[in-house]
């Protein structure tokens, strides 16, 4: 029985190997036809056009632009929410507020995409008339609210783990509640909060449906969030929706982009785990 | 170097005196007022999130209500919004959920039992644990690429429901493993010791005692994982689940579509009527999710034992 259970547990290892194998295999085929220089040094991404260019940076730019915007919403709001939940709210208030945040996190991403396109974008266009119908800002705002509960919940765990003796010591020295929260508890939980932040960024980078619906399909190098852009994930969706034959260069591009995406998120997830582990060792 | 150091010391000395002065005049009312204001700001952050959620729900309901009619459930998708429905998407979602549940339950729970009850503390176990944690953070669209390369092409399953089920199983496996382990961990050691003391083997102990007590928690985690699966869109788009399916699903090798993909398809249409259809689809999807979550909460309250 133990052996059977071990085999079931090994399915997860096989999954990882499968991901790496599939991505690697197609990426190698891709780089047989496209050089590293074309991929990393060009500034245009037009593999579906007649004159094909394979510079990855416009897609990375779009991804980073949306993720940055989402973090401007999710990180401050999430951290404030966590501070309130952990340091100020009593049990009754927590029991009322918590389910709302859980529902906010449980809404499918395609719903957030709909909301971004049909509600946030019209508001943005009313305020900034030059806003394009598909734009990075709208997707970023919706994504920020989607990720807020995750930041709040992980940061709250980190704050909650700070021992009470630290709080009591600060109170004894005459600090107010807010001073204790921000000058003692938050610094003590900093590595846990940083781990939560990194995980949130990784989540934003890998998020697909919101950007596929609301952010557009125009890969370009821009810092203007009111313009239409394309993220790495949205490009994979765009190619998947068309009927791209297996074995063509277009088919291989989504695996090369996927490999880039996988490496970026993997790096951030590992960094987050290392930070979180350091933080656990201090207080347990 | 030395001068610098001395200057720092003087600076530091001056700062200490400043603190000293502050201590004589702590200005407590002002500091408390600042605290209260910020506390309000922090509460506002949560309320802003909740306001966003309520706005989203109201917006979706107002948009979708006119199209929430019987045809929505009985008709296939169509070029004409008045004739279009979710029939094939609902069938696809329900089939996908049931088959994914049947496949992922033994896989996830088995892996969870192994890691929690049987695994020796060695390098292999640590490796599996780190691996599960990392898989939970892999973007779901990457699972779609895996499914495309492995199930659609590699195993030659094509764009079938089975390929979708296998892909979705891998997406939710880490969630099930983690929640199973938590449920098992909640069973006190005394139960295990009692069973072992009476001569049960390790597997008998798990099967007849630990699993029985933790089943509430395991099922709750299972339902929550499935509610993730039912809203997940990206991996199924990548493996090529189609949107225009105008026939009933007959078996696991048929091509298929699901609710969120049909919604995505309607959102992408330029006509306003299709946007409203998408909103109606979203209402159906949210209602389904709400039912599952209510079921999970009910199960948790009913089956979970407090020690």
What would you note in describing this structure?
The complex is a heterodimer of chains A (284) and B (307). Chain A is mainly α and 284 residues long. Chain A has twelve helices and no strands. The mean pLDDT of chain A is 92. Chain B folds into two domains: 2-67; 70-303, MetI-like fold. Chain B is built from twelve helices and no strands. The radius of gyration of chain B is 27 Å and the shape is globular. Chain B starts with a helix and ends with a helix. The interface between A and B is large, with 83 and 85 residues.
Helix content of chain B: over 70%
Overall outline of chain A: globular
Q: What is the name of the CATH class of chain A? A: Mainly Alpha
- Mean pLDDT over the residues of chain B: 88
Q: Could you name the CATH homologous superfamily of the largest domain in chain B?
A: MetI-like
How many β-strand stretches of chain B?
A: 0
Based on the structure, what is the oligomeric state of the protein chains? heterodimer
Poorly predicted tracts of residues of chain A: none
What fold name stands as the CATH topology of the largest domain in chain B?
MetI-like fold
Q: Strand-residue fraction of chain A? A: under 5%
Number of domains of chain A: 1
- What distance lies between the first and last C-alpha atoms of chain A, to the nearest angstrom? 34 Å
Beta-strand content estimate of chain B: under 5%
Distance between the termini of chain B: 63 Å
In N-to-C order, the SSE pattern of chain A is HHHHHHHHHHHH
Shape of chain B: globular
The interface involving the most residues is between: A-B, 83 and 85 residues
Entry summary:
The complex is a heterodimer of chains A (about 280) and B (about 300). Chain A has helices spanning about 1-35, 35-40, 55-90, 90-105, 110-125, 135-160, 165-170, 175-190, 190-205, 210-215, 230-240, 250-284.
Notable traits:
heterodimer; A: 284 residues; mainly alpha; MetI-like fold; 12 helices; globular; B: 307 residues; 77% helix; disordered N terminus
